[in-house]
Every structure is written in C-alpha cells, then in structure tokens.
Amino acid sequence: MTKTMGFYAELGGTEPPAAMALSAQVHPDRARIADYLDAGHRLAHIPAPGFDPFEPDRPLPLDAGVLTDGVWCWPAELGGLVRRHPMTVDEAAVAHMAANQWRVPDLSDEELGDAGAAFFESGALAMSEPSDPDMTFDFDAGLGEEDAAP
C-alpha cells in the first residue's frame, strides 16, 4: 500500500491547508528531506510551475506533479516547500528516508507502475481524473533513456 504526504488542499489534495503543516522550528534534517523529496520518481507530470501556497507569486523550481519512492507519494512541490518554509513532514516518512540513507531507491517499471496505481486509488487528490488535457500520468516519466526498459 502506498502512503501519501503533503497533498494539501491548495495543491489539489485532500489534506488540510498547508498552513497547518507550518512549524515553529526547522527540522534538523531539512536539507536532506528536501533533497530526497526532489529526487523522487515522477508518477504524474503537470506542465505548470510548482505552486507555493505561502508565496503564490514565486513559483517553485519543479513542475507540478506527483513523485514517489515506491512506498510514499507526495506532490512534486513538497521538496521546495520544505526547503523554503519550516514545514513538518510525517515522521514515519522521515524515518523511511533515513533508513534509505537519504537516497530514493531505484524502482523497476513494475514497481513504479504498482506505486502509481496504488497512489491513484488512494484518493489523495481531490480529482479522480485529470481535468487538464495537458496533464499526463506517465509511470515512466521519471526515467531517462538510460533507465528506460528496452
């Protein structure tokens, strides 16, 4: 079963608003967490700048979408939000990242497909189907030519 985090209402998710995740303290592993989140495998790509609900006029560097490590799924914007703002991140997810030595594991096409299917069944997004014709759900989107299956 895929676990989800960071699908705040402002990002089209079903979690409470992002302001509820702000913390008075910066996590001691903030940079490692943000780097891990940015390195996830892409399950969905939305050809639009990542949205920062705290600074709407300052887009995040990654395009919007959904990333995964095969166990957890999160919006592509989450790494940028953690980097810019004192955000809390699910402690079970942080423990998982640390157990992976802060490196997103390689995933086979089958593992990536399984994670994608489980994510879309999870209901973490407020929509059930893409309403934007430019939005793509490509389980191989995160793979470069050298990583793609023959």
Explain what the structure shows.
The chain is an alpha+beta fold and 150 residues long. It has 4 helices and 4 strands. The protein has helices at residues 30-38, 78-84, 91-99, 109-122; strands at 3-4, 41-50, 60-68, 72-75. A 4-stranded mixed β-sheet has the order 1-4-3-2. β3 (60-68) and β4 (72-75) form a beta hairpin. α1 packs antiparallel against α2 (78-84). The longest helix has 14 residues, at 109-122. The relative contact order is 0.23.
Return the structural class: alpha+beta
Helix content: 25-40%
Unreliable residue stretches? 128-150
Hey, roughly how much beta strand do the residues contain? 15-25%
Ends: how far apart?
A: 28 Å
Major sheet: arrangement of strands: 1-4-3-2
- The overall pLDDT, averaged over residues, is 85
Tell me the Rg in angstroms. 15 Å
Order of helices and strands: EHEEEHHH
- Molecular shape: globular
- What's the quaternary structure here? single chain
User: What composes the largest sheet?
Assistant: 4 strands, mixed
Give the total of beta strands: 4
* Individual helix count: 4
